[in-house]
Design brief:
The complex is a heterodimer. By secondary structure, chain A is of the alpha/beta class. Chain A is 15% helix and 26% strand. Chain A is built from two helices and eight strands; from the N terminus they run ββββαβαβββ.
Chain lengths: 136, 416
């Protein structure tokens, strides 16, 4: 069954991909390998999983402000998530996307959503205007 | 988020492509942070000159190529290389080349060649109430708390963009209402003997960050006239274990003459009592192992000051270290030590100086790994993940005694 949710657009764009709802907040710097897209923080429950190509949902972003640079690296390497769904707007990960767009490297949509209302998994489609559809 | 007419013209390219891009990035950050407008700033401390990947180098070099130049005095945090002792840092030629290009690119934009995480001990000291845009968590906490300047934590890209645009998003800790203490910490149960030792202050900071996260607190009951080094230890500890960008020390820091002042004339939302047991638990959590083995000692996070080197020199006079003892500092502090002859004396004891960078952000420690002893809460917090070393926390005199003995020696009396 399809579920539809309205997100607040922080960075516009359309995208689709498998939903990856992270079990816990993460610092991309020191937590995600910019050369592979994998979660490398051994204390994180999603250790070993890849963020690449996913619609990545995070309740909040924590930790180092160098996470902006990791996001830029992921976009430049083609290893970024296809979209970010954030419980709280941030100026760290999203700023990495802003800089990638400024440098004409690429961009991904970033939406603010009530993360707790998202399904656990499934396939997510983000349309114009921030409408998100989830199919199981 | 509204730009004024001048800012809008800069964003549209009236003062060149680099200023335009910088202004747009600052404005986008403001929009994401919920700021209503930007504010002119007096200075910047840039954290973004530490190499994490090639794209950041390309970003900085693009700003340089398009004629970018900082509009306000801008200091630099550490890079990934020790430019004065290139052999200290391991790395292949690509890493060295890119790390160097990132540092050089920032210099070409007009930043000062400071390469230190303690810029406030190298003359960069904005005044009470001045708006600035700083990066590096310990420096942000120090600037807000100890100097009474006003800054949010500016991450990579926002920091240098703010320097070029001369503006920062007007929100967060720039606003009076967000600088008021919401918690009061009572420290009466902690002995004055413990409060008289340097080793208490990193632990206090680590407890503050772990307990309060990002809540502004006023800490009451500490001795008046706390040194900059003790205050920087609180700032570094609190900003490592939590997201603390501002704290007040009653009777010491400029926005906290009294508890009431720190609380903006109102009542705090919460009161917390710090007990000796909490202090011991926090101290123990800074160590990841509990036995005698150590393989190296590292001090200087944040970068060691002149006064800290004087204390180290007094403790290590006539001693010989059995294991490597790294002291991380800024190049200007090292040059004063060189001029006074203290550098030679410290090197005779076995001190290895690391400048422009530090052992937790660059591959400097022996590759074999092992156990690292430190007097820094920040090294203790980030050491295991960043270096693979286990860590043991101790006072500076514990670190010296342990380096001489080649095994962990700690004086427990003051902690009991």
């Amino acid at each position: 069954m399809a579920v539809t949710l309205q997100g607040e657009v922080l960075i516009d764009g359309t995208a689709e991909g498998p939903l990856f709802r992270m079990a816990k907040p993460i610092s991309f710097w020191g937590g995600v390998d910019p050369a592979s897209g994998r979660v490398t923080d051994p204390r994180h429950p999603d250790h070993g999983a890849s963020v690449s190509g996913t619609v990545l949902a995070l309740s909040e972003t924590i930790g180092s402000s160098s996470s902006s640079a990791v996001m830029l690296e992921l976009i430049a390497a083609g290893l970024a998530p296809r979209a970010l769904l954030l419980g709280r707007p941030d100026a760290i990960l999203t700023l990495g996307v802003v800089v990638a767009r400024e440098m004409e490297i690429g961009s991904i949509p970033v939406l603010r959503v009530p993360v707790e209302q998202l399904p656990q998994d499934g396939y997510a489609r983000i349309g114009e205007g921030g409408e998100i559809t989830f199919a199981s | 988020m509204e730009l004024d007419a001048h800012e809008r013209s800069i964003a549209e390219g009236a003062e060149g492509a680099a200023s335009a891009m910088a202004m747009r990035i600052v404005a986008e950050a403001g929009r994401l942070l919920g700021a209503g407008c930007l504010i002119e700033i007096a200075s910047v401390h840039v954290d973004g000159c530490l190499y994490h990947g090639d794209s950041s180098v390309h970003f900085i070099e693009r700003l340089v190529a398009e004629g970018g130049r900082v509009r306000v005095p801008t200091t630099l945090n550490v890079g990934a290389l020790d430019l004065l002792h290139p052999e200290r840092v391991r790395g292949d030629s690509h890493f060295r080349d890119m790390a160097r290009r990132l540092m050089d690119g920032h210099l070409a934009l007009g930043c000062t060649q400071s390469f230190t995480c303690a810029p406030y001990q190298s003359g960069h000291r904005p005044g009470l109430g001045q708006h600035v845009a700083w990066g590096e968590s310990n420096a942000v906490a120090f600037a807000n708390s100890v100097l009474g300047a006003r800054t949010n934590r500016c991450g990579d890209f926002l920091d240098i963009s703010a320097g070029i645009a001369g503006r920062a998003p007007y929100c967060g800790l720039h606003l009076d209402r967000n600088r008021v203490a919401r918690a009061v910490v009572n420290t009466d149960a902690v002995s004055s003997a413990l409060k008289g030792t340097d080793a208490f202050y990193p632990v206090l900071g680590a407890w503050l960050g772990a307990t309060l996260g990002e809540i502004v607190a006023a800490v009451d009951g500490l001795p008046s006239g706390l040194s900059d080094d003790r205050l920087k230890a609180i700032a570094a500890g609190a900003a490592s274990t939590g997201a603390i960008g501002l704290f007040h020390i009653v009777g010491v820091t400029p926005e906290a003459a009294t508890v009431k002042d720190a609380c903006g004339g109102g009542e705090p939302e919460m009161e917390v009592a710090l007990t000796p047991e909490m202090v011991r638990q926090t101290r123990d959590r800074l160590s990841t192992v509990d036995d005698e083995r150590i393989d190296a000692v590292a001090v200087g996070s944040p970068h060691f000051s002149r006064a800290e080197f004087a204390a180290l020199a007094a403790l290590s006079r006539g001693q010989k270290f059995a294991i490597p003892f790294y002291a991380c500092t800024g190049r200007d502090v090292l040059s004063t030590l060189a001029n006074s002859g203290e550098q030679t004396a410290l090197e005779e004891a076995g001190v290895v100086f690391v400048v422009d960078t530090c052992v937790v952000v660059a591959p400097i420690l022996p590759e074999a790994g092992g156990v690292l002893m430190t007097n820094s809460a920040k090294f203790a917090h980030y050491g295991p993940a960043n270096t693979g070393f286990e860590v043991v926390y101790g006072s500076l005199s514990d670190c010296v005694a342990s380096a001489v003995a080649g095994r962990v020696v700690r004086d427990e009396t003051v902690w009991r």
